[in-house]
Amino acid sequence: MRPILPALIVFIAWLAASPSAAQEWGCYDPRPGHPSDQEKADFVAAAGAAAVAAEKKYGVPAPAIAAMAIVESGYGWTRTALEAKNYFGWKYYSDRSAGGRAAYVLSCQPPEDINNKYVVFDSLEESVDFVAMKLSTLDYYHEASRAYRRTVAAGADPTEATRLWLERIANPYNWRPEAYVRSVTRVMNDPVRPSDALSAERNLFRLASLLHRNDPTAARPTVAPAVATVVPAASGAADALLEHALAKVKPWNGSCDAPETDRPGWEGFPVTLCRYSDVGAIVSTHMLNPDKTKLARWIATACRDAGAKKGVACVDYLVKEIQTASSMGVFPVSGYIPEPAGDGNYCFLFRDGVTITTARRPKQLPPASGGCDSDDHSDEAALKARKFARVASTTRYHYRVAGGLEDVGEDGDVRWLDVVRKLYQEAWTSDRNQLISAKAIAAKKAGVIE
């Protein structure tokens, strides 16, 4: 038998001379030797500030966002954090979904973890802003984020609202949702030394408590209200009205690309390029269309805002109007919609949900060769904004009757575009679409509905 002591001595000496051999850097782990307590404290401060800014902008809970960045980036010391400034492990799927950002390849990632590409950011602040926007707008998460904004605005404890939000988004956000909730919660309790016990001095929940104590509107997107609102009906009646709306709404369901969130004037909203066909013409148009639940909520709320005594009849009226006006929810942000009109078929140029004309497109023309002009004229100023606003053919008259105060002029005045865009963007994270409510209120006052 060979003596093992000399070999052992040589091995120990090799380890001492080779730190990387003594401490392997796991693919998803922080760099060996990091973070120190001071590095932790510095990152917690920076992530907390970025998360507060994100909550003010998107209405997602700052304590959870900061803790998620800490957990997923190892206080900024994982490979993706160091090489790509990606502090959430947010994966890259397409140029559009990444907002035109580059992709970083994590070469050490094992093959069983599908997709080793990650979005590249310029800073911690940009990474936090991007992920907060996604958690506020993507279909997987926007219901939880909307509920958080609503409950905090109503005076609920931000700490409990944050915990509930985390539980709701954990699945599908993480493949092990229960373990993920516990890890993030422990960091919210104590971001420097994660614990099941709440640290009175260091907990991240203070971010939300201070934020909402100082600024009660911080968790809501800030778009100026334009149409008077009405206190909702009793919950039982409201639920029944919503159920009826859900049964009646059959939203347009076309082929669309992955959302892009950097469309000028629509930054942060999941605008999609969709294929739309009618009257023998096929077009590709940028849209922001509500899903079934969102549209049903808007309709039910509009009937309550109108004070409709016959709620079911009001829902039926709005469903019919929206179907006729927009094929049940098509909202063109930019591009053409082919439609029949008068004695012919035309390619109507839209911007911000309203038909427009421009210097190069002074009138609406018939389709040609099975389509419309490929130029959406988004680089041109609108010369005229026409009468009707999607998705319910709301007019300036409806807007004024319902209490709208902005000066929108008469047919052709382009100021109508700004108001429609603001109200639709406000509606995107709300149960209330003031454009649809205006339509219902005007119909009630005209005796069209009771």
UniProtKB/TrEMBL annotation:
Instruction: Look up the coiled coil feature and give its residue ranges.
Output: none
Q: Which domain of life is it from?
A: Bacteria
MF-aspect GO terms: amidase activity
Q: Which UniProt keywords apply?
A: Signal
Q: Tell me where the signal peptide lies.
A: 1-22
Provide the Mannosyl-glycoprotein endo-beta-N-acetylglucosamidase-like domain boundaries: 49-189
Per its UniProt record, what InterPro entries does this chain match? MGlyc_endo_b_GlcNAc-like_dom
Tell me what this protein is called. Answer: Mannosyl-glycoprotein endo-beta-N-acetylglucosaminidase
Question: Organism source for this protein?
Answer: Oharaeibacter diazotrophicus
Query: What broad taxonomic lineage does this protein's source fall under?
Result: Bacteria, Pseudomonadati, Pseudomonadota, Alphaproteobacteria, Hyphomicrobiales
